[in-house]
Amino acid sequence: MRRWTTLLVLLFLIPASSFAQDSKLGNWILYFGNKKINSKLNWHHEVQYRNYNAIGDLEQLLLRTGIGYNLTENNNNLLLGYGYILSQNYISGIDGKTSVNEHRIYQQFITKQAISRVKVQHRYRFEQRFVEDNFKMRFRYFLALNLPLNNTDMVDKTVYLSAYNEIFLNSKANVFDRNRLYGGVGYKLSKLARFEIGYMNQFLANGNRDQLNLVTFISF
């Protein structure tokens, strides 16, 4: 148990040291929910509250939902969804923000597999984005790995390591949008709930951003 405590402490110290260096570390509080409707259908819903700093300086509020269909039990899922995104962007040269509203329709395919103890997830997502008066399209590929530490599988009361990489590609000019690289520690409380804390770096076309992520997953 001491080893897991040490890992959690180190994870907190990394963002704390970044604050001390006056970096642009932000904080994302994330909730992901999944409701099983029947053996084939599921309802996905999520809320993401993204801050420029620890809390209180809103960067983005994201609300997303969708209905998924299982091609095979637990491993392959197709989903059609909708998202609403409110962004508050700083205006260059002045200490002020502008609000941007976005409505988003998306289609995605998730497939899962296991390589020994490592749980692997691939997600392919295609988005149609209505950003104020502009229409944009974007493709995203997400690769995630989970490694249980104190058990051989992701059973109840399991501490695990989590990592993912996600790349975003636009359909028009400036094809590269961003890349997100994440590492963290999680705890699976039961088959209904698990929690993670992690550190993410976003590589953008004109720089990068660091994020502290606090994540809750609920399945019911």
Give descriptors for this structure.
220 residues; 1 helix; globular; mainly beta; 11 strands; single chain; 69% strand; eleven-stranded mixed barrel
What does this structure look like?
This protein has an 11-stranded mixed barrel. The protein is mainly beta and 220 residues long. It has 1 helix and 11 strands; from the N terminus they run αβββββββββββ. It starts with a helix and ends with a strand. The longest helix is centred in the first third of the chain and has 19 residues, at 2-20. It has a domain at 68-183.
Shape: globular
Helical amount? under 10%
Number of strands: 11
Mean pLDDT: 90
Number of helices: 1
Structural class: mainly beta
As a percent range, the share of strand residues is over 45%
User: Largest beta sheet, briefly?
Assistant: 11 strands, mixed, barrel
Strand ordering within the main sheet: 1-2-3-4-5-6-7-8-9-10-11
Q: Which runs of at least 5 residues are low in confidence (pLDDT < 50)?
A: 4-23
Topology order in helix (H) and strand (E) letters = HEEEEEEEEEEE
